[in-house]
């Protein structure tokens, strides 16, 4: 034992102090990580406790009752329908634009241009949602009034950088040898991209899209400007303003009726559940597509 | 491959039969005429002043030590280096008289005539059938697709092994089969020249020999240029052999690939004119 101490002295070079600092920092980092998980857990639990009881069939099938303080079953079907339509159209706009920008970045652009565009996408990703809301308000709503489509347009601006960056990442994973094989046949860039590169990245594109949908489904600020003046009827037409889950939560939270509060919590729970499921699905899809891509390396 | 140093300087590589088919110089048709080809990646030179001719329906081997620019050289023949942003070249690569490096030449059109098989088998993650059919469809050669696919697979000596499972994934084939599939894919679109960049370096000896046999059979229809590390392979398959090596270092310490000797394979391996070629083929160097 003492011979051991001669070879590896216990306090050489301030070893004790360095070890203590190491332990301390490890403990703080661990604590921080668990705190983040803890916040999520507490949030989910508290939302579930307050909203869980109000989740029932009529929440999804019935529209809000015109008179408060009745015992008629009511629900938020119009808000679920509106969010579905608004996010659906937003996805329909954002996927082609996002994927094509990623294709330009990864397959066509020169390195310097690609860098600049990637940076622009990151900046766009950081633009606050309310700014996007005001922008679309000034661009569309001032002239054409509110509509679900204006809301979709605002949300799509938030989705494009997410989808583009996610797609760009998976495009970068496609081995260069695959492109060479196709280009070596005298096949054009675009046919190469469409025929052999994109099919390998479908999983990644779906993953990026799912995450983007989860992210914007709960956006409130852009819809405040674009699709907030709504009635309580169940409507589907994108040409008029439609109700949405996040705005309903906001509205009901200010209601005097405790039943409305419960429904707001329930809607929040549905939203969290949706985001959770979407994220997990996206993870699973990403893992699967990575495995697939790994196969031929 | 670790070459052993032989006791005497006599070349040890057996030169096989292709020389029987080598026509005399006046009867050779020139496909490529390369003049003063100099290439670099950014500030790093890769090739310096290469000049040679490549002849129709012959197999031309490019041999030499690692880093001597062999791959850079054949990638100049179908503009594959365009994919490397820092790549620059000077000089001329005349293909039937047209300078492939010239302005206005579409690399897609170049590669349409001059196909390529790569070092590592790189089948698409598609079915065996679709691997061969992809190029045909993309290039609009859709008449008799099944017949064209079968013909290409037969030419690549793969048909008998895969005819019963054309719809299964190409990734399930062995390495040698994948490489023959890549050859089938390349020849299905009926190119004029097929470039092979160390096509057998990732394969076992049996798969290697099947690919060499293939080239013997196919050179009636195609002109082959093959880069190889393996001198025995060059001796077995090539009619003409070009030996590339590295120049002495320039003032900045850079060395670049140079063409040392280009002759019939027979000459290169038995009576090389250049001392450096002799050292290489006898295994003293490389």
What does this structure look like?
- The complex is a heterodimer of chains A (297) and B (286).
- Chain A has helices spanning 2-7, 15-51, 57-61, 77-108, 111-126, 129-144, 148-173, 176-183, 189-217, 221-226, 245-253, 258-295.
- Chain A has twelve helices and no strands.
- In chain A, helix 4 runs parallel beside helix 7 (148-173), helix 4 (77-108) crosses helix 11 and helix 5 packs across helix 7.
- The termini of chain A are far apart.
- Chain A is mainly alpha-helical and 297 residues long.
- Chain B has 286 residues and is of the alpha/beta class.
- Chain B has a single domain (28-281), classed as 3-Layer(aba) Sandwich (Rossmann fold).
- Chain B is built from ten helices and ten strands.
- Chain B has a six-stranded mixed β-sheet with strand order 6-7-8-3-9-10, with helices on both faces.
- Chain B is globular.
- The N and C termini of chain B lie close together (9 Å).
- Residues 5-9 of chain B have low confidence and may be disordered.
- Chain A binds chain B through residues 110-111, 175-189, 191, 195-196, 199-200, 292, 295-296, and chain B through 78, 80, 83, 85, 108-113, 115-118, 120, 122-126, 134-135, 138-139, 171, 182, 185-186, 189, 191.
């Amino acid at each position: 034992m003492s011979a051991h101490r001669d070879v590896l002295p216990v306090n050489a070079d301030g070893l004790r102090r360095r070890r203590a600092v190491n332990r301390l920092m490890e403990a703080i980092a661990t604590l921080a990580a668990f705190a983040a998980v803890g916040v999520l857990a507490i949030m989910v639990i508290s939302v579930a406790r307050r909203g869980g009881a109000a989740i029932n069939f009529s929440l999804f099938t019935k529209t809000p009752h015109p008179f408060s303080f009745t015992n008629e079953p009511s629900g938020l079907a119009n808000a679920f329908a509106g969010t579905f339509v608004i996010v659906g159209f937003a996805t329909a706009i954002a996927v082609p634009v996002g994927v094509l920008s990623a294709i330009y970045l990864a397959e066509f652009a020169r390195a310097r241009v690609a860098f600049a565009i990637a940076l622009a996408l990151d900046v766009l990703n950081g633009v606050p949602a309310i700014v996007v809301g005001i922008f679309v308000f000034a661009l569309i709503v001032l002239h054409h009034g509110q509509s679900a489509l204006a809301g979709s347009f605002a949300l799509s601006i938030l989705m494009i950088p997410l989808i583009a960056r996610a797609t760009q990442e998976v495009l970068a994973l496609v081995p260069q040898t695959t492109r060479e094989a196709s280009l070596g046949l005298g096949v054009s860039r675009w046919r190469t991209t469409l025929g052999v590169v994109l099919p390998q990245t479908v999983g990644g594109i779906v993953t990026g899209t799912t995450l983007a949908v989860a992210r914007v489904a709960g956006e409130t600020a852009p819809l405040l400007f674009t699709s907030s003046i709504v009635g309580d009827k169940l409507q589907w037409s994108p040409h008029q303003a439609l109700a949405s889950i996040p705005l309903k939560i906001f509205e009901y939270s200010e209601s005097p009726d405790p039943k409305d509060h419960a429904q707001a919590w329930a809607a929040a729970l549905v939203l969290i559940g949706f985001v959770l499921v979407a994220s997990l699905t996206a993870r699973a899809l990403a893992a699967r597509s990575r495995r697939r891509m790994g196969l031929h390396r | 491959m670790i070459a052993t140093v032989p006791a005497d300087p006599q070349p040890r590589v057996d030169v096989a039969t292709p020389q029987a088919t080598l026509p005399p110089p006046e009867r050779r048709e020139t496909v490529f005429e390369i003049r003063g080809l100099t290439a670099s990646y950014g500030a790093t030179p890769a090739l310096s002043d290469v000049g040679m001719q490549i002849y129709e329906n012959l197999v031309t081997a490019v041999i030499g030590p690692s880093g001597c620019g062999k791959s850079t050289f054949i990638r100049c023949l179908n503009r594959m280096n365009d994919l490397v942003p820092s790549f620059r070249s000077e000089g001329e690569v005349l293909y039937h008289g047209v300078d492939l490096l010239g302005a206005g030449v579409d690399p897609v059109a170049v590669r349409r005539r001059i196909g390529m098989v790569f070092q590592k088998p790189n089948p698409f993650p598609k079915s065996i059938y679709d691997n061969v059919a992809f190029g045909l469809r993309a290039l609009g050669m859709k008449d008799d697709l099944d017949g064209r696919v079968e013909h290409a697979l037969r030419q690549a000596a793969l048909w008998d092994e895969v005819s019963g499972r054309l719809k299964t994934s190409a990734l399930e084939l062995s390495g040698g089969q994948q490489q023959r599939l890549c050859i089938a894919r390349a020849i299905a679109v009926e190119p004029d020249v097929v470039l092979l960049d160390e096509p057998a370096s990732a394969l076992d000896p049996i798969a290697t020999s099947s690919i060499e046999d293939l080239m013997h059979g196919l050179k009636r229809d195609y002109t082959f240029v093959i880069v190889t590390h393996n001198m025995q392979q060059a001796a077995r398959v090539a009619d003409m052999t070009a030996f590339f090596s590295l120049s002495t270092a320039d003032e900045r310490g850079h060395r670049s690939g140079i063409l040392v000797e280009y002759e019939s394979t027979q000459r290169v391996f038995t009576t090389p004119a250049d001392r450096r070629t002799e050292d290489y083929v006898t295994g003293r160097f490389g």
